[in-house]
Amino acid sequence: VIRRAEHPFIPACLNQIDPLFVEATLAAEDRRFFTHPGVDPAAALRAAWQNIRSGRMISGGSTLTQQLVNLLDAQPPPVNQGEHGRDIRESAWGRKLRTAWLALALETRWSKKHILEAYFNLASYGTDLQGVRAACRTYFSHDPDTLTLEQAALLAALPQSPVRLDPRRRPADARTARNRVLQRMKIDGGTRSNAEARSLGIVAAPPVPGTSIAPHWMARLAQLPHQVCEVRLPLDRSLQIEASAALRDVMLDLEDLGADAGGVVVIHNSSGEMRASVGSPDWEHPGHGQVDGTMALRQPGSALKPFAYAMAFERGLRPSSILPDLPLSHPGTDGVFRPRNYSGLHRGPVRARIALANSWNAPAVALLSELGAAEFLDLLHSLGLNSLDRPAGEYGLGLILGVGEVTLADLTAAYACLARGGVFFPRMEILEALDSEGSPVPNPNPEQSRTLHDPDGATAAQTAPHRIFGTDACFLTLSILSDEEARAPAFGRGPLLTFPYAAAIKTGTSSDWRDNWAFGLTEEWTVGVWVGTAGGGPMDRVSGTRGALRVMRKLLDYLHEDSPGDTGPDDPTAAEPGRFTPPWGFERRWICALSGMPAGPRCPGRVPEWFSLSDPQSRACDWHLIVEIDSASGLLARECTPEDRVHEALFVQSGSVDPIGSPPGIFEPWFREQGLPLPPSRASACECLDPQCRPLHRLSPGPRFDDAAPASTRIWNPVDGSVYFIDPTLPAAQQAIALEGSGDGVELVWFVNGEEYARTRHGERVFWPLSPGCHEIVLRSHAHGGQARVDAVRIVVEEGG
Ligand SMILES: [Zn+2]
Ligand SMILES: [Zn+2]
Asked: For residue range 673-730, what is the model confidence (pLDDT) as tens digits?
């Protein structure tokens, strides 16, 4: 809980405090302050007499010096010992004696001025308000150097009972107490009755953020309606401090590259609460430290792509579906749109999993052209990204590449929707707001950014949680964004990208390296980070691994410090570390790595993929086919071709599955360009001259996947026939592949090149460091009957360069 008026200690010197306030305080608390030695026997006697007469402790009779001793005293106040009233009184009296003795001692060392100054800075003037300066700024929006009579009297009355008299919550009580102080002051009757008649004059003070742990947040609260006096924030202090430190540390490294602005937002998924929000690496920075990076409108780069894929999964796309990674032209409203991958390289047919995991542009544009930019824009609006306020036609297909502008706060809330399984919660940065009477103010959370531009008033519906994606679509999206193998082609591997807990990550980079984004999603948390420049100019190639991603990783690690890295061997149903748990009704099936179709026996690359049980099996891969070739001519063999010249050869064609959003046969030129062997279209010349002699037909691509299902002992990774490259620029320790398999035995035994390498349990992974050469990897598991089952793959590791 943080109160709006929270101001950490900002000391004020006596000469910065209006003498009227000193006068009011002495009238209220300690008339003989300047003459007594620290204890006022007359006041103490009168208090004792009152207490004895009433039988209760109703008056302290303490001097300001005694009160200061109590404020300075680190000891907690006497503990209420229950029903034994005498115990309380005795400990209270004992404490009073000790305080009196200490007050006398303090007076011999400190001047009266020094004591007053310390008192004014330590006394409490309201809930969470320490010191007169903080109180003055909160209540009256100015410093205590000039106060009106009634302001001085009000402040002087508060330390007696700062919570009960808090003028923001109990204005009537505060006013009574103020007028009592006015009665005790030596002023003429007219002035007094004038002052007594005045209202408290409490303003909804803009906070003084420079001293807060969340200054930008405090500054945003200043925009709340005036009747709000107190707010409860979902802010988690230690997380906020951690987030500020993480951003500051990383930004220090990026200074030379021109990055000088950034922001962090952390959302607790199940509650939707914003638990941390950092608006800049350094609030005190004179130029732009106060600019709120979580609210800045910036281009999201690739960071909108996951929402398009999730939307497509809702509509029947599978992670195994093929998208074209080709330099295609897409007609747009303002001409022809030709997206290019950053590398300039195009990969032909790519599975949706690979396209999203590597954030390739051309497949995403093809996908958006299928979904429709206008419908995607509607989806983004329902995810709270209302700053995208131009018509869909103006963004066109570039929308998926981040031509619009969004805020970090909005985008993090949109990502939290994916982490939450598809239900969108509006950004919640205020838990509760109270007015001066302590009643809740409805809808305290600030309107989402730029809602004013929403012409059809659709925003009302967006303030309530609403479902946008199904849990299945969210799971598939998260399973892709957490797939270390799938993203390795574009992002490589390394400690930053390998998580001991299930984490989906997405980065984004806008054109010319202006903006650098990273989002991290776990079951419980969503972390969003933006790094850029305050002026909106380019940075010097700040990549995700140097910028936002590092901040995001630090925070995710901090948030998952306590999470067990291993769920233990006793619970086979427990979620595997590093993997999201699929919803009910999902299973892994083997698919062809190239076609995404159920793997056939001829497919050289098989990969596991998640499918809904209700998803019917389509026919097995027909992209890989075996053709009988006459080795003498390289053409199709004929019936008369001598048997010793006939051999089977594997060819690749774009088979029966058409890529999403593209005409059939679109990959043929790409296959040719890649130099992939296409099956010959002609047969060898006939040697028998028999008119009945025919070319041998192409063989069928093989039995259906189901029939080809091997025994239950399977190596999931690596895939048979894979070729790995050792990257000479990366440390050798980071270049390992995960050995991953399943079997029905309790223990899985891995052999590499004939030697036992490791023993794992079902679902566990073990890493094998790459070494150049050709390697055979064998997995053996012992079924219950004691019969060993085996699966084997061969891989090649080459030295990259
Ligand atoms: Zn295949
Ligand atoms: Zn022939």
From this structure: 777 777 777 888 888 888 888 777 554 444 333 333 344 677 877 877 676 777 666 6
pLDDT at 650: 78
Of the candidates 351, 599, 585, the residue with the CA atom closest to the CA atom of residue 475: 585
Supply 194's token pair: 């004038």
Length of the chain: 801
CA of 634 to the centre of ligand 2 (A): 16
Confidence (pLDDT) at 610: 93
Q: How far is the CA of 602 from the centre of ligand 1 (A)?
A: 7
Say if strands 606-612 and 586-592 run parallel, antiparallel, or are unpaired: antiparallel
How many whole angstroms from 423 Cα to the centroid of ligand 1?
Answer: 37
- Rounded CA-CA distance 800/725 in Å is 5
Shortest-distance ligand to the CA of residue 640: 2
Spacing, Cα 599 to ligand 1 middle (Å): 6
Please provide the DSSP assignment of 372-429 as one string: -HHHHHHHHHHTT-TT--S-HHHHGGGGGGT-S-B-HHHHHHHHHHHHTTSEE---B-
How confident is the model over 511-547, as pLDDT tens digits? 777 889 999 999 999 999 999 988 878 887 776 667 8
**Which long-range contacts does 39-43 make (Cβ < 8 Å, 24+ apart)?**
39/63, 39/65, 39/66, 39/100, 39/103, 39/104
Distance from the alpha carbon of residue 653 to the mean position of ligand 1, in angstroms: 10
Match 């808090």 to its residue by tokens.
Answer: 166
Q: What is the 3-state secondary structure (H, E, C) of 735-793?
A: CEEEEEEECCCCEEEEEECCEEEEEEECCCEEEEECCCEEEEEEEEEECCCCCEEEEEE
Mean pLDDT of 575-592: 81
* Cβ-based neighbour number of residue 583 at 10 Å: 15
Expressed in angstroms, the distance from the first to the final Cα of the chain is 56
* Structure tokens belonging to residue 777: 């990897």
Contact 28, 160 (CB under 8 A): yes
Beta-ladder partners of 529: 264, 518
Provide the CB-side half-sphere exposure for 790 (13 A, CA): 8
Give the closest ligand to the alpha carbon of residue 708.
1
CA of 625 to the centre of ligand 1 (A): 8
630 CA → ligand 2 middle, Å = 12
Task: Put residue 61 in one of left, alpha, beta given phi > 0 → left and psi -120 to 50 → alpha.
Answer: left
Nearest Cα to 420, choosing from 378, 460, 468, 377? Answer: 468
Using the mean position of ligand 2's atoms as its centre, give its distance from the Cα of residue 602 in Å. Answer: 28
How many Å apart are CA 106 and CA 96, to the nearest integer?
Answer: 15
Ligand 1 centroid to Cα of residue 729, in Å, is 33
DSSP secondary structure letters along 476-493: HHHHHHT-HHHHHHHH--
536-552 burial, b if ≥16 CB within 10 A, otherwise e? eebbeebebbbbbbbbb
Backbone angles phi, psi at 272, to 5 degrees: 75, 5
CA torsion 222-226-232-233 (nearest 10°) is -30
Of the bound ligands, which one is closest to the alpha carbon of residue 655? 1
Q: How far is the CA of 698 from the centre of ligand 2 (A)?
A: 17
Ligand 2 centroid from CA 629, angstroms: 14
∠ CA 67-69-75 to the nearest 5 degrees? 110
CA of 596 to the centre of ligand 1 (A): 7
How far does the centroid of ligand 1 lie from the alpha carbon of residue 320, in Å? 12
Cα 271 to ligand 1 centre (Å): 44
What is the 594 CA–ligand 1 centroid distance (Å)?
Answer: 6
Partners of 278 in beta bridges = 264
Tokens of 656: 């029966």
Pair of tokens at residue 160: 């007696």
Identify the bridge partners of residue 518 per DSSP, sorted by sequence position. 507, 529
- Over residues 634-686, the pLDDT tens digits come to 888 888 889 898 888 877 777 777 777 666 677 877 777 777 777 777 888 88
